[in-house]
Amino acid sequence: MSTTENRGQFGSKLGFILSAAGSAVGLGNIWKFPGKAYNCGGGAFLLVYIIMVALIGTTVMMAEFTVGRNAHKNALGSFRAISQKWGFAGGLGVLTGFIILCYYCQVGGWTMKYIYAYIAEAKMVYADPTAYFLGMLGANGFPLQGAVIFPLIFLFLTAFILSHGTAGIEKMSKVLMPLLFVLLIGLMIRSCTLPGADAGLKYMLNVDFSTINSNAILVALGQAFFSLSLGMGIMVTYASYLSDEDNLISNTGIVCVLDTLVALFAGFMIIPAVFATGIDPGMGGGFAFATLAGVFEAIPGGTLFGLLFYFLLFFAAVTSSTSIMEGTIAFLIEEKGLKRNHALLGTSVVVFIIGVFYTLSQVYMNIKGIWVSKNGIEYPIFGDFLEYLTDRLLLPLGALFSVICVGWVWSPEKSVEEATSHGRFKFSLAPVYKFMVKIVDPIAIGVIIVAGLVF
Ligand code: PFF
């Protein structure tokens, strides 16, 4: 017990749930999910996504929770506690988190830039939403605000919250997560009641099985890992701060349900509004920035709703960025002996420098023609590469190592022992969990990795 006390612990069950949900609910739910749902078939994609979360997401999360709570150590130490040789699984998670953090803090900065934009210069955004978005990324010269100033403020905030340890994470989550839900539900009702929104609602509720193909399944599973914060040792690290009496089974269920609800609500907030205003949703990173400006311009009171929306996105981003950075910080403190504040400062500086190149590579460097050309195909030199590497390879690989380590090196029985706090809690689905962790999850994730690399 003493180790737990020395390294800090969540003060309450609610604090843990809100912090873990805060990590899961992030840019992935609001920035990434609606665009993917729109592009991969609407209702059919929602169905596939829910099945992926229910079967694979929940079991991988439970596996990660049990690894962390068993050892009460950072991700690397927790895997090592199972087998000395498996430390690399945690080490890989720390590395993946560090890479994600570099771009996550940049996009977090963009959300702050848009809060500023809707307060100070909404007219400029409306005049040409795409030009405004690309201008932030450097279409008209060095993007000082989009790449440096706002991401720096965002990064500073993330590090500041973490300088207060788990108490900082918990306090922030207790305030921001309920606010996030209220904002999200309010915006969703506004969107669904717009004239013409019913076409979007139909698209999201109509399950057309012909749109379910291998690509939709791949996208859904990759999205589920990112969205649930799996494969990076974050849930391992968070669970390591839990007491031995906490119920991991109900915690897994609650976090997965909350995260999925937010993704669905975000879909029902964005898609009906896009249909109602007849705007071409476009793809990728501009969805939550450029596309939505047209929606906010078109609806009554839209600028206020726009402002609330970017606050929502910002809250979601900061409760996730803190979790991603905590993975690196816990590792530096416990494995490398650094003081918390030194670890925070060092990490922030490196993340900032690499991150600047992420934003620059979106438009500024590409415009100047810095591309890598291979076999006649041009690849953006940096930005897309970071996301490609983490979403398609490193996160699923991390999840694969988690389930193999629990299913084959530790043992599903011991994992269940930990999940039930040695018989304290009932777990009627334990046989299903053991089978999933040992057999189904490794095969499904292995297929995803190979398919993701080949297609
Ligand atoms: N789950 C977060 C989101 O949906 O934005 C992002 C994330 C956080 C991914 C923590 C991975 C992670 F370990």
UniProtKB/TrEMBL annotation:
Listed InterPro entries: Na/ntran_symport, SNS_sf, YocR/YhdH-like
Keywords of the record: Membrane, Transmembrane, Transmembrane helix, Transport
Location within or outside the cell: Membrane
Membrane topology: Multi-pass membrane protein
Domain of life (superkingdom): Bacteria
PROSITE patterns: NA_NEUROTRAN_SYMP_3
Entry's transmembrane regions: 12-31, 43-65, 86-106, 142-163, 175-197, 217-241, 253-275, 307-332, 344-365, 393-411, 432-455
Classification via Pfam families: SNF
CC per GO annotation: membrane
NCBIfam families referenced in this protein's UniProt entry, alphabetically: Na_transp (NF037979)
Protein name per the record: Transporter
Annotated organism of origin: Anaerotignum faecicola
